[in-house]
Amino acid sequence: MESSWQRFINNTILRRTVVLVAIIFVLWYVRAVMTEILLTFIFTYLIVHWLRLVQRWLPKLPTAITAVVTYAIIIFLAYVGLTKYMPILINQIVRMVDYVINFSQSNDMTWFTQYITRYVSMSTITTQLRHWVTIGISTLTSVGTFSFSFVMAVILSFFYSIELKQMNGFSRSFLDSNVAGWFFRDLYYFGQKFVNTFGVVLEAQFFIAITNTVITTVCLIVMQMPQIVALSVMVFAFSLVPVAGVIISLIPLCMVGYSTGGIKYIIYILIMIAVIHVIEAYVLNPKFMASRTQLPIFYTFVVLLVGEHFFGVWGLIVGVPIFTFFLDILGVKSFTKSKTNKINLQKR
Question: Cβ(301)–Cβ(244) under 8 Å?
């Protein structure tokens, strides 16, 4: 007769549910270092994929040498960016903010200001301004903390990369543990699921953001818009947020565009964003996402709202990948894939 513990071990669904709840509890308990965890995972995921790609081209080249050269190039580019381009970026951000402030105080916006003050009292506006100033100050003070987390994530991902084979071999040895082998096998199961969903989706969103930024930057250069560097960085940051990022980036782009070329530039920007959204929806998403996150827009916005509430800015970036991970755990297939399978069955 099996004991209660043995029945628990043999019940795969119950056992994995308990392990998943334990993982969530641990992550919530260490949420103070969640930035380091997410950055380490992202860096490690991208670097490991790069190392495997290089191994296909140069199979005899040691992984450690490739990792050292890769990180040396990254550090050099970071140094050049901080010393040469960061002052330019800060200067252009300040000038872009001046553009927006001048636009909001111009005669063209008098009607809008009067309309707002008709329904909103000045005390309310002042309170909101103080609130945003407080947020800005807290953001500036958190730059040092984020920089430390960034450096620690780079260091951890570096040590993982230079000992990639040793790390994989040592980690797999836990699966054969006589005491808690079942626990580590379930961790390995969720780890594979996490990499195959969260990692792939986040990587796809990163490449989509790069593509959107390149297209937008070319269009802004053709339109002779000011502060190209600052606007490009802003577009890239917003593009990391699925769906909503493109819409949010419209506001500063339209303000700067109006102050530069009037209403016609707003029309140009609206057309540009519409074309980019079509390219993202019908070309980039099917190519990069591979039908993995074909969520309705309503679900996407709900996930972003919930993610921002619990995780802040990180929730906007990782909310959809995490939701996709849970869909994969629950065995929920994408609508397109289910529909395709149904059509194929009907043909048979």
Answer: yes
Per-residue pLDDT band for 347 (boundaries 50, 70, 90) equals very low
Binned at pLDDT 50, 70 and 90, residue 130 comes out as low
In terms of residue numbers, what domain contains 46?
A: 7-347
Share of the chain above pLDDT 70, in %: 75
Two tokens, residue 111: 């009607």
Q: How many domains does the chain have?
A: 1
In a domain, 1, yes or no: no
Which of 92, 97, 89 minimizes the C-alpha distance to 226?
A: 92
What per-residue string of b and e applies to 24-45 under the rule 16 or more CB within 10 Å gives b?
eeeeeeeeeebbbebbbbbbbb
pLDDT, average across residues 160-180: 86
Q: Compute the mean pLDDT over every residue in the chain, rounded to the nearest whole number.
A: 76
Q: What angle do CA 36, 69, 46 make, to 5 degrees?
A: 40
